[in-house]
Design brief:
216 residues; alpha+beta; 5-stranded antiparallel beta sheet; 5 strands; globular
């Protein structure tokens, strides 16, 4: 039997590293998915490379600064080479999902959500998550997190490996309970796939509000 594990990240670069940890742990590419907000066009569709903007700047963490100038080439951080993506990340593509707007995505969840959108299903991303076994409450929070500029990593893993593999996703992930409490204080109630996607300026304000984000 398999179970679905998911985590939300404020920065694509953190989610990218989570995907690589799963791959290194032996999770097949076909069982991992990543969905990242692209309303601010950080992913250059003409080059097909994550983090390379139309101006040629490498900005995987979307802080407005070229990552190469930040010395990000050390360790396992943001600065993995632009051409170094392998496995799942090599299959990134652009999609439009109801309520989220433009996203950069790869993997089974993205394909399911896109298929639901094409079939006019309500809440493509929420439906895809709940179909995979994620609770409706958590699915709505994950969808809202992506809508507000985040990146979602989801994987199908054997039941007996859940605890071990979930531990690989904890680093720099968003604490859903803390984040949802903050949203609710500002009047948010639930993810609405019929709502218009946030504009780039709105997403920028979200990032300024939460900064690096509360961590799980």
């Amino acid at each position: 039997m398999t179970t679905t594990i998911s985590r939300l990240y404020d920065n694509y670069s953190d989610a990218e590293q989570a995907v690589r940890r799963l791959e290194n742990a032996g999770v097949p590419h076909s069982d991992i998915s990543i969905v990242a907000n692209n309303s601010d066009n950080w992913y250059d569709s003409s080059s097909g490379k994550a983090g390379l903007t139309s101006g040629g700047k490498v900005d995987r963490d979307r802080d407005g600064t070229d990552d190469r100038a930040e010395g990000a080439g050390t360790g396992a951080g943001i600065g993995a080479g632009i051409g170094g993506a392998a496995g799942l990340l090599a299959g990134l593509g652009l999609l439009a999902i109801p309520g989220l707007g433009p996203v950069v995505a790869a993997g089974w969840l993205a394909a399911t959500a896109a298929g639901a959108a094409a079939g006019a299903a309500t809440g493509g991303i929420v439906g895809a998550l709940t179909e995979a076994g994620v609770s409706k409450e958590d699915a709505s929070l994950y969808a809202e997190g992506v809508r507000r500029g985040g990146t979602l990593v989801t994987a199908r893993v054997p039941d007996q490996d859940r605890a071990r593999l979930e531990a690989l996703l904890h680093e720099r992930s968003v604490n859903l309970q803390d984040r949802s409490s903050a949203w609710k204080k500002s009047g948010w109630t639930d993810f609405d796939a019929a709502s218009p996607p946030l504009a780039p300026d709105d997403i920028r304000r979200e990032r300024e509000l939460y900064g690096a984000g509360s961590r799980r």
